[in-house]
Amino acid sequence: MRFGFITCVRLGEACIREILRLGGDLALLVTLHDDLGRSKSGRVYLDNLARRHDIPLHKIRNVNDADAIELLREADLDWLFIIGWSQIAGPELLAVPRKGVLGMHPTLLPQGRGRASIPWAIIKGLEQTGVTLFKLDEGVDTGPILAQEICPLADNETASTLYSRVAEAHVALMRHAWQRLEDDTLPMLEQDASSATEWPGRRPEQGLIIPETMSVAEVDRLVRAVTHPYPGAFLETSDGDIVTIWEGHPAVGEPGPTVLRVGLTDGSYDAVSYERTA
């Protein structure tokens, strides 16, 4: 089997390192040109990794450009991984590798197709989420499933803790699936469209806390869901300031001197880590 890998973020790099640790071979690596995506969260540069392991490295502007598709054709691939890449693979690219293109999605598909997977899992109060290895098709997260890794959610789960555990689950999923991919023994299961759910993208302004209409449980989930590395939940004060809340808990007893207590429809919430901006 011949494999290629496209990524430009730490998560993809971690999966590459796991493949190499397992003794796997990659025919080529593809990433963004150095001048692109500098502000992209988790952006990495693969030059040293590629040089150290003697893997050809190619830099592109768009995965669907003619030069990108041609270099992938010349690589004569069976499978191509695309992980941590914001550009959607078009039909011409999907047809290049003999067996197809593989991606990972941070939910247990067919649940949670779409975006903002980590915040939504917490906001929705799920008991578990996970990562799915699947074959890309022309839909959005609709292709056949090859393997999954489950991540149970704790009652106090935050975006920070879940983000780290989902990243670890990507690597674990690669570790568990790699040998069967090489041996061509990993089965593919079509998704059950009747049980699919779609989660929309989220905007920073959706972190707004409205004390007059929100419960303690709703605010607690929202704060935990959009804390670091996301923009955070926030209040608008009567004097026009913005208070961004990074951490807190349902109110118990009297608040300490540095605690910001927020009254809600069914009780109060204590913010213990927050910042105020005019």
3D architecture notes:
With 278 residues, the protein is an alpha/beta fold. The chain has seven helices and 13 strands. Helices cover 27% and strands 26% of the residues. A seven-stranded mixed beta sheet has the order 3-2-1-4-5-7-8, with helices on both faces. Strands 10-11-13-12 form a four-stranded antiparallel beta sheet. It has a two-stranded parallel sheet with strand order 6-9. α1 crosses α6. The N and C termini lie far apart (58 Å). The model has no long low-confidence stretch (mean pLDDT 96).
Task: Outline the secondary-structure elements.
Layout: E1 3-6, H1 10-21, E2 28-32, H2 47-52, E3 57-60, H3 66-75, E4 79-82, H4 91-94, E5 100-105, E6 113-114, H5 117-123, E7 128-135, E8 145-152, H6 159-183, E9 198-199, H7 216-225, E10 233-236, E11 242-250, E12 260-264, E13 267-277
Parallel strand pairs: 1-2, 1-4, 2-3, 4-5, 6-9
Antiparallel strand pairs: 5-7, 7-8, 10-11, 11-13, 12-13
Helix pairs in contact: 1-6, 5-7
List the uncertain runs: none
- Percentage of residues in strands: 25-35%
Q: Alpha-carbon distance between the termini?
A: 58 Å
Structural class: alpha/beta
CATH superfamily of the largest domain: Formyl transferase, N-terminal domain
Radius of gyration: 21 Å
Total number of beta strands: 13
**What is the second-level CATH architecture of the largest domain?**
3-Layer(aba) Sandwich
Quick one: CATH class of the largest domain?
Alpha Beta
- How many distinct helices? 7
Number of separate domains: 2
Oligomeric state of this protein:
single chain
Largest sheet: 7 strands, mixed
What coarse outline follows from CA principal-axis ratios? Answer: elongated
Mean pLDDT: 96
